[in-house]
Amino acid sequence: MLKPEEGVKILLEHLGEDVTRPGVVETPKRFVKALWELTRGLREPPPEVVFFPMEYDAEPGPVVIENISAVSLCEHHLLPIFLSVSVAYVPGDGVPGLSKVIRLVKWAAARPIMQERFTQWLADLLMEKLKARAVAVRVCGVHMCSFIRGVRDEHHNMVTVAKRGDIDVKLRCRRPPLCK
Ligand SMILES: [Zn+2]
Fold it and tell me: What is the 149 CA–ligand 1 centroid distance (Å)?
Protein backbone atom coordinates (compact mmCIF):
# COMPACT_ATOMS: atom_id res chain seq x y z
CA MET A 1 0.00 0.00 0.00
CA LEU A 2 1.08 3.51 -0.83
CA LYS A 3 2.12 5.69 2.09
CA PRO A 4 0.15 8.95 2.46
CA GLU A 5 3.31 10.99 1.73
CA GLU A 6 3.85 9.07 -1.51
CA GLY A 7 0.27 9.81 -2.52
CA VAL A 8 0.81 13.54 -1.99
CA LYS A 9 4.03 13.35 -4.02
CA ILE A 10 2.12 11.75 -6.89
CA LEU A 11 -0.49 14.49 -6.63
CA LEU A 12 2.17 17.22 -6.75
CA GLU A 13 3.78 15.60 -9.79
CA HIS A 14 0.36 15.35 -11.42
CA LEU A 15 -0.05 19.11 -10.88
CA GLY A 16 3.24 19.78 -12.66
CA GLU A 17 5.39 20.49 -9.64
CA ASP A 18 9.05 19.51 -9.51
CA VAL A 19 9.01 17.40 -6.34
CA THR A 20 12.79 17.32 -6.12
CA ARG A 21 13.32 21.03 -5.54
CA PRO A 22 14.35 21.91 -1.98
CA GLY A 23 11.28 24.03 -1.22
CA VAL A 24 8.82 21.18 -1.76
CA VAL A 25 10.87 18.08 -1.07
CA GLU A 26 9.47 17.86 2.49
CA THR A 27 6.03 19.18 1.52
CA PRO A 28 4.28 15.79 1.30
CA LYS A 29 5.31 15.08 4.91
CA ARG A 30 4.14 18.52 6.09
CA PHE A 31 0.87 18.28 4.17
CA VAL A 32 0.01 14.90 5.70
CA LYS A 33 0.87 16.31 9.15
CA ALA A 34 -1.31 19.36 8.60
CA LEU A 35 -4.28 17.25 7.49
CA TRP A 36 -3.69 14.94 10.44
CA GLU A 37 -4.06 17.94 12.73
CA LEU A 38 -7.14 19.29 10.92
CA THR A 39 -8.91 15.92 11.19
CA ARG A 40 -7.93 15.07 14.78
CA GLY A 41 -11.62 14.74 15.69
CA LEU A 42 -11.73 11.50 13.68
CA ARG A 43 -9.23 9.84 16.02
CA GLU A 44 -9.21 11.64 19.36
CA PRO A 45 -11.97 11.06 21.89
CA PRO A 46 -14.21 14.05 22.60
CA PRO A 47 -12.95 16.28 25.44
CA GLU A 48 -14.45 15.43 28.82
CA VAL A 49 -16.96 17.99 30.00
CA VAL A 50 -16.79 18.99 33.67
CA PHE A 51 -19.91 20.07 35.51
CA PHE A 52 -20.32 22.54 38.33
CA PRO A 53 -23.19 22.61 40.80
CA MET A 54 -25.52 25.57 40.48
CA GLU A 55 -25.55 26.21 44.28
CA TYR A 56 -28.59 28.38 43.95
CA ASP A 57 -32.22 27.45 44.13
CA ALA A 58 -33.30 28.33 40.61
CA GLU A 59 -33.47 26.62 37.28
CA PRO A 60 -30.67 27.93 35.07
CA GLY A 61 -31.99 29.59 31.94
CA PRO A 62 -30.43 29.17 28.52
CA VAL A 63 -26.68 29.72 28.41
CA VAL A 64 -25.49 31.28 25.16
CA ILE A 65 -21.91 31.09 23.87
CA GLU A 66 -21.47 33.13 20.73
CA ASN A 67 -18.87 33.06 17.99
CA ILE A 68 -16.76 30.02 18.81
CA SER A 69 -14.24 29.88 16.00
CA ALA A 70 -13.42 26.51 14.50
CA VAL A 71 -11.95 25.04 11.34
CA SER A 72 -13.30 22.15 9.32
CA LEU A 73 -12.61 20.62 5.95
CA CYS A 74 -15.34 20.36 3.36
CA GLU A 75 -15.82 16.67 2.69
CA HIS A 76 -16.35 17.27 -1.03
CA HIS A 77 -13.14 19.19 -1.78
CA LEU A 78 -11.00 18.84 1.37
CA LEU A 79 -10.62 22.60 1.44
CA PRO A 80 -10.94 24.52 4.72
CA ILE A 81 -14.21 25.85 6.07
CA PHE A 82 -13.89 28.70 8.55
CA LEU A 83 -16.65 28.41 11.09
CA SER A 84 -18.20 30.65 13.67
CA VAL A 85 -20.46 28.62 15.94
CA SER A 86 -22.96 29.95 18.44
CA VAL A 87 -24.57 27.54 20.85
CA ALA A 88 -27.25 27.82 23.50
CA TYR A 89 -28.20 25.19 26.03
CA VAL A 90 -30.44 24.74 29.02
CA PRO A 91 -28.30 22.90 31.56
CA GLY A 92 -29.60 19.75 33.18
CA ASP A 93 -28.05 18.61 36.45
CA GLY A 94 -24.90 20.67 36.72
CA VAL A 95 -23.58 23.53 34.67
CA PRO A 96 -20.94 22.59 32.06
CA GLY A 97 -17.60 24.40 32.18
CA LEU A 98 -17.36 27.10 29.54
CA SER A 99 -13.98 26.17 28.09
CA LYS A 100 -15.04 22.52 27.74
CA VAL A 101 -18.01 23.49 25.60
CA ILE A 102 -15.70 25.49 23.35
CA ARG A 103 -13.23 22.58 23.16
CA LEU A 104 -16.06 20.21 22.29
CA VAL A 105 -17.19 22.39 19.37
CA LYS A 106 -13.62 22.68 18.04
CA TRP A 107 -13.15 18.91 18.37
CA ALA A 108 -16.44 18.22 16.56
CA ALA A 109 -15.37 20.49 13.69
CA ALA A 110 -11.96 18.84 13.27
CA ARG A 111 -12.93 16.43 10.47
CA PRO A 112 -14.30 16.54 6.93
CA ILE A 113 -17.89 17.78 7.17
CA MET A 114 -20.94 18.81 5.24
CA GLN A 115 -22.13 21.86 7.16
CA GLU A 116 -25.83 20.96 6.98
CA ARG A 117 -25.25 17.53 8.57
CA PHE A 118 -22.58 18.80 10.96
CA THR A 119 -25.00 21.30 12.49
CA GLN A 120 -27.60 18.62 13.21
CA TRP A 121 -25.00 16.24 14.61
CA LEU A 122 -23.47 18.99 16.78
CA ALA A 123 -26.88 19.68 18.33
CA ASP A 124 -27.24 15.98 19.24
CA LEU A 125 -23.66 15.82 20.50
CA LEU A 126 -24.16 18.86 22.74
CA MET A 127 -27.43 17.44 24.09
CA GLU A 128 -25.58 14.27 25.08
CA LYS A 129 -22.23 15.62 26.29
CA LEU A 130 -23.62 18.67 28.13
CA LYS A 131 -26.48 16.60 29.60
CA ALA A 132 -28.63 19.48 28.46
CA ARG A 133 -32.40 19.80 28.59
CA ALA A 134 -32.42 21.71 25.31
CA VAL A 135 -29.92 22.94 22.73
CA ALA A 136 -29.80 25.41 19.86
CA VAL A 137 -26.93 25.73 17.41
CA ARG A 138 -26.20 28.30 14.72
CA VAL A 139 -23.25 27.75 12.41
CA CYS A 140 -21.87 30.33 10.03
CA GLY A 141 -19.37 28.94 7.54
CA VAL A 142 -17.14 30.39 4.88
CA HIS A 143 -16.20 27.59 2.50
CA MET A 144 -12.91 27.93 0.67
CA CYS A 145 -14.26 25.68 -2.10
CA SER A 146 -16.69 28.42 -3.15
CA PHE A 147 -14.58 31.35 -1.93
CA ILE A 148 -11.37 30.82 -3.90
CA ARG A 149 -12.49 28.46 -6.68
CA GLY A 150 -15.66 27.43 -8.49
CA VAL A 151 -18.05 30.41 -8.25
CA ARG A 152 -15.29 32.41 -6.51
CA ASP A 153 -17.57 34.50 -4.39
CA GLU A 154 -15.82 35.86 -1.33
CA HIS A 155 -18.81 37.66 0.17
CA HIS A 156 -21.30 34.93 0.95
CA ASN A 157 -21.46 32.71 3.99
CA MET A 158 -23.63 29.72 4.84
CA VAL A 159 -25.80 29.71 7.95
CA THR A 160 -27.29 26.50 9.32
CA VAL A 161 -29.34 26.04 12.47
CA ALA A 162 -30.50 23.15 14.63
CA LYS A 163 -32.65 22.92 17.72
CA ARG A 164 -33.36 20.17 20.23
CA GLY A 165 -35.92 20.39 23.00
CA ASP A 166 -37.68 23.46 24.31
CA ILE A 167 -35.39 26.48 24.00
CA ASP A 168 -36.32 30.01 23.10
CA VAL A 169 -33.28 32.02 22.07
CA LYS A 170 -32.41 34.03 19.02
CA LEU A 171 -28.89 32.98 18.14
CA ARG A 172 -26.60 35.19 16.18
CA CYS A 173 -23.16 34.43 14.87
CA ARG A 174 -20.88 36.73 13.00
CA ARG A 175 -19.14 35.82 9.80
CA PRO A 176 -15.88 34.11 10.76
CA PRO A 177 -12.93 36.47 10.47
CA LEU A 178 -10.66 35.42 7.63
CA CYS A 179 -7.70 37.43 8.82
CA LYS A 180 -6.60 38.58 12.24
ZN1 LIG B 1 -16.55 21.92 -0.98
Answer: 10
Please tell me the distance from the alpha carbon of residue 175 to that of residue 172, in angstroms, as a whole number.
10
pLDDT beneath 70, residues of the chain: 179-180
DSSP string of 7-50? HHHHHHHHHT--TTSHHHHTHHHHHHHHHHHHTGGGTSPPPPPP
CA of 33 to the centre of ligand 1 (A): 21
Give the architecture (CATH level 2) of 51-164. Answer: 2-Layer Sandwich (3.30)
Compute the distance from residue 59 Cα to the ligand 1 centre, in Å. 42
Whole-number Å distance between alpha carbons of 171 and 20: 51
Please count the other Cβ atoms lying within 10 Å of the Cβ belonging to residue 124. 13
47 CA to centre of ligand 1 in angstroms:
27
> Distance between alpha carbon 84 and the CA centroid of its chain, in Å?
8
Nearest to 60 by CA among 95, 102, 100: 95
What's the pLDDT tens digit per position in 151-179? 999 888 999 999 999 999 999 989 988 76
- Domains of the chain by residue range: 4-38, 51-164
